[in-house]
């Protein structure tokens, strides 16, 4: 008799385990990857087969414990994580097979890898590999159960909107392709990638090149090389960069074999693309994070553009990082990973120094030979001191008027991260910090308090600046709308200037992003005002001025990655200026003019930034030196949430003491920075572990064994992007 190990498709926050069912002798088509109908308790449920095997006659001595089971998945003998393969228990049979296989043996291992590595419910991981990406509905047709077909394809309307590039542009791009000689850096990068492909050992090439250095051209040639070897390629770009502008570069080179996948597609659209890839009609996929899991046969190449971006980390279960999962996949498959960025993450840079299969190739200059635009830092504290109350410094105003009056374009960026969440003295730039954690305190409206979300330290918000006595101690707060209002006032009398605001409000509808960029691209003077989303992918020749309204708000965040993200953002947004014939310039407004992150970014000096940042990371035990895991506890009842957090805290400490020893560390249970969110109380426990530690091995049993308050949710964010 055959038995099948099945992941049930049930909505769950808690960790699940696969169940074992008997495969009826007359059932055809039950294979790994199939959706099946099963009985679970008294209900019918959809499940997915992740392993199939002959039942063994001898009964197991003892059921395998969940912890052991989940870490042992790569051992073939353990590949059947049965609840009980004990023959004395009568196994329920599979009721019917609902689909052809969605994934193969490798997919089954991938699901288990992600579930283990990120301590996530298996059911949440299996959806990454199914065609609609969520739980399907089953319907009864006559006597037969079947999966409901995904909704019809969306009407063509949206897709038909005029592309940013018109046909002439695309023709020019296509023509351009072979017209130039590759730069030295590009050649080195392609050589390294082809070398890794020939080696087929899961190597990684980091293409470390400034904006405009020709990274995309490198990706295109790498894809060509993969296709020529009969292999498929997956290209991940940040969701926001998935504009027609980006997509058309791949389509104009590879035509019909390109599939596009992003989160705004309907179930039906995703299903169609998925089928095209599964059938081999499409051999190149360009998409957002989850496109990594498309059913590409003979995957030879994964490209991740802007690999430092936070969008590659999923913020709900499974909380995976696409780059890190891709690194695992290429190793398993003998494929090649290409990571590209003007500002590679510190983890990635670091790995190229200690992992012999990771190589870094540098593309130091723009492909068209133009220099990077000069960056000027504008000290806003000094501006304020000399009487200016505007959020636009005098220099920024002058340069903006000059650019617009000449009929050019400008980009203004408001850094929203960290906005209004801390106190700032507008006179001296002072920001209250925790006396023990050396992070800025977070302002809590409730009770007018300042709170450290690492250690829980709390003080009332001071009425005047503790450093200089100034009463101008304010929640630093202004959204894009307020900036827009002030900008429009500044531009009075310049009616021909179009102002386009791009933030989460104005881009919530499908394709709004493209529509706004099209509007900006029209000839004539225009200002694009937006949040950090405008730092990505945007490529317009006529942008001569980039202004950053507030470069430092992010630096105030109590987050180990604050300085890195500030450096990245300034560097990325600077790259948007002066890409074409016209010279560009960048103005960076800040209250922290002497911050190393900002100064180093303004001089394009990464070395300086790292030599300041790395010792801090090392001293405080953050990545790339230590791994983090953040256990999250949330629920509606404050006392219950605290109880669970304290119980877990005790168990974590016990496990660290008993199992792993002293190189691990827990910072203890503490309320989250935002203690109450959407009527849920939230606590967390931050754990630091050695860089190569198997975090799940310690944390998973802790979470599974908890006793108190089942209504309270517990999850773990392994390798959190930020805190
Ligand atoms: P990145 O992806 O690093 O921002 P792109 O690949 O978009 O850079 O290249 C920027 C511009 O330079 C594009 O218009 C591209 O066609 C062009 N380009 C790329 N490589 C070369 C080259 N070797 N010589 C001249 N132009 C190039
Ligand atoms: Zn503290
Ligand atoms: Zn002050």
From TrEMBL:
<feature type="binding site">
    <location>
        <position position="437"/>
    </location>
    <ligand>
        <name>Zn(2+) 2</name>
    </ligand>
</feature>
<dbReference type="InterPro" id="IPR005259">
    <property type="entry name" value="PriA"/>
</dbReference>
<feature type="domain" description="Helicase ATP-binding">
    <location>
        <begin position="196"/>
        <end position="349"/>
    </location>
</feature>
<dbReference type="GO" id="GO:0008270">
    <property type="term" value="F:zinc ion binding"/>
</dbReference>
<feature type="binding site">
    <location>
        <position position="428"/>
    </location>
    <ligand>
        <name>Zn(2+) 1</name>
    </ligand>
</feature>
<dbReference type="InterPro" id="IPR041236">
    <property type="entry name" value="PriA_C"/>
</dbReference>
<feature type="domain" description="Helicase C-terminal">
    <location>
        <begin position="460"/>
        <end position="622"/>
    </location>
</feature>
<feature type="binding site">
    <location>
        <position position="425"/>
    </location>
    <ligand>
        <name>Zn(2+) 1</name>
    </ligand>
</feature>
<dbReference type="GO" id="GO:0006269">
    <property type="term" value="P:DNA replication, synthesis of primer"/>
</dbReference>
<keyword id="KW-0862">Zinc</keyword>
<keyword id="KW-0235">DNA replication</keyword>
<dbReference type="GO" id="GO:1990077">
    <property type="term" value="C:primosome complex"/>
</dbReference>
<feature type="binding site">
    <location>
        <position position="434"/>
    </location>
    <ligand>
        <name>Zn(2+) 2</name>
    </ligand>
</feature>
<dbReference type="GO" id="GO:0006302">
    <property type="term" value="P:double-strand break repair"/>
</dbReference>
<dbReference type="Pfam" id="PF00271">
    <property type="entry name" value="Helicase_C"/>
</dbReference>
<protein>
    <recommendedName>
        <fullName>Replication restart protein PriA</fullName>
        <ecNumber>5.6.2.4</ecNumber>
    </recommendedName>
</protein>
<keyword id="KW-0347">Helicase</keyword>
<feature type="binding site">
    <location>
        <position position="465"/>
    </location>
    <ligand>
        <name>Zn(2+) 1</name>
    </ligand>
</feature>
<dbReference type="Pfam" id="PF00270">
    <property type="entry name" value="DEAD"/>
</dbReference>
<dbReference type="InterPro" id="IPR001650">
    <property type="entry name" value="Helicase_C-like"/>
</dbReference>
<dbReference type="InterPro" id="IPR040498">
    <property type="entry name" value="PriA_CRR"/>
</dbReference>
<keyword id="KW-0067">ATP-binding</keyword>
<comment type="similarity">
    <text>Belongs to the helicase family. PriA subfamily.</text>
</comment>
<dbReference type="Pfam" id="PF17764">
    <property type="entry name" value="PriA_3primeBD"/>
</dbReference>
<comment type="function">
    <text>Initiates the restart of stalled replication forks, which reloads the replicative helicase on sites other than the origin of replication. Recognizes and binds to abandoned replication forks and remodels them to uncover a helicase loading site. Promotes assembly of the primosome at these replication forks.</text>
</comment>
<dbReference type="InterPro" id="IPR027417">
    <property type="entry name" value="P-loop_NTPase"/>
</dbReference>
<dbReference type="GO" id="GO:0006310">
    <property type="term" value="P:DNA recombination"/>
</dbReference>
<dbReference type="InterPro" id="IPR041222">
    <property type="entry name" value="PriA_3primeBD"/>
</dbReference>
<keyword id="KW-0639">Primosome</keyword>
<dbReference type="GO" id="GO:0043138">
    <property type="term" value="F:3'-5' DNA helicase activity"/>
</dbReference>
<dbReference type="GO" id="GO:0006270">
    <property type="term" value="P:DNA replication initiation"/>
</dbReference>
<keyword id="KW-0547">Nucleotide-binding</keyword>
<keyword id="KW-0238">DNA-binding</keyword>
<dbReference type="GO" id="GO:0016887">
    <property type="term" value="F:ATP hydrolysis activity"/>
</dbReference>
<dbReference type="InterPro" id="IPR042115">
    <property type="entry name" value="PriA_3primeBD_sf"/>
</dbReference>
<feature type="binding site">
    <location>
        <position position="455"/>
    </location>
    <ligand>
        <name>Zn(2+) 2</name>
    </ligand>
</feature>
<feature type="binding site">
    <location>
        <position position="468"/>
    </location>
    <ligand>
        <name>Zn(2+) 1</name>
    </ligand>
</feature>
<dbReference type="Pfam" id="PF18074">
    <property type="entry name" value="PriA_C"/>
</dbReference>
<dbReference type="InterPro" id="IPR014001">
    <property type="entry name" value="Helicase_ATP-bd"/>
</dbReference>
<dbReference type="GO" id="GO:0005524">
    <property type="term" value="F:ATP binding"/>
</dbReference>
<keyword id="KW-0378">Hydrolase</keyword>
<comment type="subunit">
    <text>Component of the replication restart primosome.</text>
</comment>
